[in-house]
Amino acid sequence: MASASYDARRGELTTYFDRTAVEAWSRLTSDAPVSRIRATVRAGRDAMRATLLSWLPADMTGLRLLDAGCGTGALSVEAAHRGAEVVAIDVSPTLIGLAQERLPAIAGAGRIDFRVGDMLDPGLGRFDHVVAMDSLIHYRAADIARALAALGARTDGSVLFTVAPRTALLTVMHAAGKFFPRSDRSPAIVPVTEGGLRRRMTSETALDAFTWARSHRINSGFYLSNAVALTRARPSASAGSGAASPGVRT
Ligand SMILES: C[S@@+](CC[C@H](N)C(=O)[O-])C[C@H]1O[C@@H](n2cnc3c(N)ncnc32)[C@H](O)[C@@H]1O
Predict the structure, then answer these.
(1) Which of 33, 37, 80, 235 is the most interior residue, by most CB within 10 Å?
(2) Residue 244, in any domain of the structure
């Protein structure tokens, strides 16, 4: 169950990613030239996406993947190229529109169902894998743990996510300050320690069935983020019972 702080933060992020920073995100996630600082962020994000994708099966035919907070959809496209049935959800209708505009032809069985809404919506159904790349980094540790529990409860394979490491707080603050001009600065990134997050996660019973399988840090100039893979060690009681709700197929 999401908290008031989760809801409030999601509201701020909706305003930010749907209005304030649309132009900057559109550019950052394209091939258009960017400043030297943003080029390090782009390179870091490319490396992060490659890391997360390397933790997913090479052949995803028939597998359901949730791209939680998909932004302009780059990871969704890669997963669909591997044959995955992707649900790509974001709170920003503008970024979803951009993702749909940019969508290349997907050969084979893969497809992407774009949605506007909350990644925790249970109506999205069950998944084999969930990826939340840089979409939980603005939430408090307690809210990240609760979100992971909600996502984990409907995931049969792995939940891959990123967090901003607190060990390098200054770097993160520096990056957050420099990444965008003052006028379109993002809601603060909330750095977390691995120990602190793991402690929060132990109070989420839905996560008892998951193992913290691996983590990997990407540090590229002004981009700093830790990737974490949670893998299901015990089958879910409700596995196989949750059908996906119908949606727009793109
Ligand atoms: C930093 S961007 C990353 C986008 C994408 N995952 C990527 O790596 O390119 C974070 C995204 O998460 C989305 N987001 C944040 N909270 C969300 C939530 N509760 N449900 C769905 N999307 C959310 C934002 O709108 C934004 O597009």
Answers:
(1) 80
(2) no
Q: Which atom of ligand 1 is nearest to the CA of 139?
A: 16
The reported pTM is: 0.91
CB 70 less than 6 A from any atom of ligand 1: yes
Pocket test for ligand 1, best of 65, 90, 112, 151 (most atoms within 8 A of CB): 90
The tokens describing 104, both together, are 């290349």
- What are the tokens at 117? 């809404």
H or E segment at 199? helix 194-202
Asked whether 89 lines ligand 1 (CB < 6 A), one says: yes
What digits encode the pLDDT tens for the residues 66-112? 999 999 999 999 999 999 999 999 999 999 999 999 999 999 999 99
What residue type is assigned to position 134 of the chain?
Answer: D
CA of 75 to the centre of ligand 1 (A): 12
**How far is Cα 226 from Cα 234, in angstroms, rounded to an integer?**
25
Considering the domain boundaries, does residue 118 fall inside one?
A: yes
Close Cβ partners of 3 (under 8 Å, ≥ 6 residues apart)? 142, 143, 146
